[in-house]
Amino acid sequence: MSNTSEKFIKAFTATTPKAECYFCNRVFISTNPDYFSYHEIDENRKLAQEHPDKYTVYEDNSLVHFFDFFGETVVIGCKCMADLKIELWIEQNKQKLLRYFGI
Ligand SMILES: [Zn+2]
């Protein structure tokens, strides 16, 4: 499987400093100092070291891309691949969606 497309990310996502994936409960946290104190960043790094399958820290200061799906948070790039599955569903149902929207 490939990654979620840039087209999908551009159309559907927003960014946030921290998000939890609804589908698998993994937590993604930026190290951007505009949003967290250095103490918080260190604490988040410790969490990620102690629980690597639960917490992911973005060391490049980037923010977490996410989107809302039925009122729940889906994180782009999550290991559960919910983002990719949703994009694939949209692609597979493209003609039905176009018909639905009357396009
Ligand atoms: Zn997930």
Explain what this protein looks like in three dimensions.
This protein has 103 residues and is an alpha+beta fold. The protein has one domain. 37% of the residues lie in helices and 23% in strands. The chain has a three-stranded antiparallel β-sheet with strand order 1-5-6. Strands 2-3-4 form a three-stranded mixed β-sheet. The two termini are 29 Å apart. The relative contact order is 0.21. The chain binds zinc ion. Zinc ion (ZN) binds next to loops.
Helix content percent band:
25-40%
Order of helices and strands: HEEEHEEEHH
Count of all domains: 1
Major sheet strand order: 1-5-6
Instruction: Give the total of beta strands.
Output: 6
Let me know the average pLDDT: 96
Please compute the radius of gyration using only Cα atoms: 16 Å
The total count of helices amounts to 4
Task: Return the structural class.
Answer: alpha+beta
Span of the ends, CA to CA:
29 Å
